[in-house]
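User: Structure please.
Assistant: Input sequence and predicted structure:
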Amino acid sequence: MKRTLVIIAAALFCTVCMAAPKSFTVSSPDGHLSATVQTGSALTYSVTFDGAVIVAPSEISMTLTDGTIYGGNATPGRCRRVSVSQTIKPVLYKRAEVKDEYNEMKIEFKAFDLLFRAYDEGVAYRFVSKSKSDFCVAAEKASFCFAEDYSAFIPYVAQHLETLESQLWNSFENTYEHIAISAWDSKRLAFLPLVVEAPKKVLITEADLWDYPGMYLYNSDADATLEGVFAAVPDEVEQGGHNMLQGLVKTRKPYIAECKAGAAFPWRVIAVASNDIALADCDLVYKLARPAAAGSDWSWMEPGKVAWDWWNDWNITGVDFAAGINNDTYKYYIDFASANGIEYVILDEGWAVNKQADLFQVIPEIDVKMLSEYAQKKNVGLVLWAGYWAFNRDMEAVCKHYSQLGIKGFKIDFMDRDDQPMVHFYQEAAATAAKYHMFVDFHGAYKPTGLHRTFPNVINYEGVHGLEQMKWEKTLGQVEYDVTIPFIRMAAGPMDYTQGAMLNATMRNYRPCNSEPMSIGTRCRQLAEYVIFDAPFTMLCDSPSHYMKEPECTEFIASIPTVWDETMALDGVISDYVVMARRSGSDWYVGALTDEYARTLSISLDFLEPGTYEATVYADGVNASRAATDFRLSRSVLTVSESSPLTLSAALAPAGGYVIKLHKR
């Protein structure tokens, strides 16, 4: 009897030892960043930079509907470590090569694994289930606790503010509130990415979002802790919304995800930068995304620019037909695109019968087959706009039919959710379109999470408060927003901002107008946005009639690449100004944007190889502060030597821009 008691006591002692808190740390390759995981009654992580706390201990867990908890009180087993140094060669991206170096630790538990990766530019973690059967996730706790009440750039959900639940239906478009974390409006969710100004700049987002709801952030306690919020799985979805093209969630199930055995959950990404400009160079989301299937052929994918009809309200002049959604108008757009080397023309909303949500019902004024054949003869590809409900009702038949007519891709709009079924829709739409060698441009979309790496035919995303807002928006905050998104939204991936306005107005003269819209800021601001903003598929938002009156600017826009061999963020401060350089072949483009204040920027060209360069400069005119269309075009020859790298002085008007193209002889 005594021996039995001794054995039981020994077993209990071992159990207690096994359950005792343990600490695991992984550091970045350069040694500056470290992530530490602490087990025990709660599962927490913290992030430090050179020993200074960036993210204080923050609890994480997942709770399944059967009561299983991935988190506190789970006993850790082995911790496996690996170091990776490799080069990713993207199909379509802002670099021809991406250096992928990190240290990873995998902490093994009985029911799950917890992976942490440390890169020089940030850390990321994910849970991986060990379940042998399918299961449901009731809730996830993802917290980000900061040591002090730092300021943050917060993109609140803009629509349907009645309740937190109602905010889960939104277009993921808003400007940023620059406030202390404690000043967070407790009635509002924020979508990702967002930036916290801790001792280092901290950008929070997610990557490899796959069959799982997207994450919002929320702060209800006026403290410095942000908590993840996830939409529950829809139970009843009703067709409705914009022209009957949206899915309106009426009821939800009591859990957030239905998962397959062994599911790997999204990476929670914490990018850490010593200065603002490093955020504009971040590749973490792309690195953490799952790669395209081995051996898949993407040689058919062609990026490029697209002449757009909707923003300019089909307004063309000097023709002998009534402009609008009809064959004559689109033939005119096709002729314009062909004459200027623009790769695509889009037929935006209106070509299919309104409120039918049926892409096989085409209005009598449009002959898609004839237009596609006409465009092909002109070496132009056609793209079709499609509402979510219309595309989703039979995407296989839609893609098959329109690919046979020569259509190159779809701009899919009005998803306006990121619950699990909607996230799956993105995956299915990308895969189905790829099957028929078609691309997709997601509008009404949540932020990129790396699907464009998995499916390179995902050629762009909206999820941005873009130029379309200028058709109806009265606020002047767009100017500041333009020099904020390169550091925050663009860190997640490309964005269809839809720039290119030729009717430009100063902040004093701007007014919203639907039929003849204008941009806030100078002409050179619009040109510089083609350099600053990532977009493998880039709109020319204005009317062909306006572009033909501005041949110098049109030539620049039509000829600029949309994917790059090299990208370098040169200088900038969030919400103040930004300077970026991009290389395609031997040509370099440098662009700069400023906020509402005039600036003279000193731009070092020390990245150029020695040699002689033909320089083409588009700069704000001396009167651009009064007449925003004023610009100066100049050309010169520059000589670069190893001993004396060049520095440019760029004078930007209020809400201005600057561009230089450098062609090596």
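The chain has 13 helices and 37 strands.
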